[in-house]
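Inverse folding, one chain.
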């Protein structure tokens, strides 16, 4: 895309992930970028979305955030991931196309019990709607069920050649079952099933415990100096 687009730069603010660092965002403010085609292109340039805002880290003295995407059709689970799949074989996967009423109680429980130290605590319905719903592109909601109990929902954007993992929330009691990692594997499988090339996982931040798990799915690609570099096992 060779057009000139208008981008905005946020003010500098304390980083949410690395102590003693300052964060700044590059924001896609141009209205011409607010559609599925341009959103997919922006994703390939290292952008993400939160609600309707499309952004990319643009920090002055830090390059810790690395955009990561899994090559879904080539994905090969590790031994530990195979054990995880076997451990959770009793769970059922469903895919929905719209936010459902039974999602919010699970989201509220997740935020209020797992992320009490986060910016989204305490959970409320307005925040939930603005954060998770999106009009930029089609959304898929990967549900994980244990019998009649909904235990996890992975909010997933559908792009022309990829899926993008937006946010996952789950029942805190299933954390010990590795439900987060299990959900990512299911998103990778769904990406391949839909004949799409990539699953975008967001930003890998090696020095942040909350954000350094995304490079465990192989093969994947990291965006470095505007080029996607493939990483195999």
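Residues assigned per position:
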């Amino acid at each position: 895309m060779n057009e000139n687009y208008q981008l905005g730069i946020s003010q500098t603010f304390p980083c949410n992930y690395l102590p003693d660092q300052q964060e700044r965002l590059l924001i896609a403010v141009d209205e011409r970028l607010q559609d599925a085609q341009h959103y997919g292109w922006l994703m390939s340039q290292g952008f993400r979305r939160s609600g309707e805002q499309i952004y990319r880290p643009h920090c002055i003295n830090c390059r810790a955030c690395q955009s990561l995407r899994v090559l879904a059709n080539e994905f090969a689970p590790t031994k530990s991931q195979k054990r995880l799949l076997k451990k959770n074989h009793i769970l059922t996967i469903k895919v929905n196309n719209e936010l459902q009423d039974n999602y919010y109680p699970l989201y509220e429980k997740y935020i209020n019990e797992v992320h009490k130290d986060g910016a989204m605590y305490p959970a409320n319905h307005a925040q939930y709607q603005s954060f998770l719903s999106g009009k930029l592109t089609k959304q898929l909601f990967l549900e994980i069920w244990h019998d009649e109990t909904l235990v996890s929902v992975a909010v997933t954007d559908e792009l022309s050649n990829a899926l993008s993992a937006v946010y996952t929330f789950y029942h805190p009691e299933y954390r010990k079952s590795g439900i987060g990692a299990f959900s990512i594997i299911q998103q990778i499988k769904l990406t391949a099933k839909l004949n799409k090339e990539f699953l975008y996982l967001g930003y890998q931040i090696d020095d942040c415990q909350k954000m350094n798990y995304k490079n465990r799915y192989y093969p994947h690609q990291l965006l470095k100096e505007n080029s996607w570099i493939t990483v195999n096992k």
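The CA atoms of residues 81 and 182 lie 8 Å apart. The chain has two domains: 7-64, 78-195.
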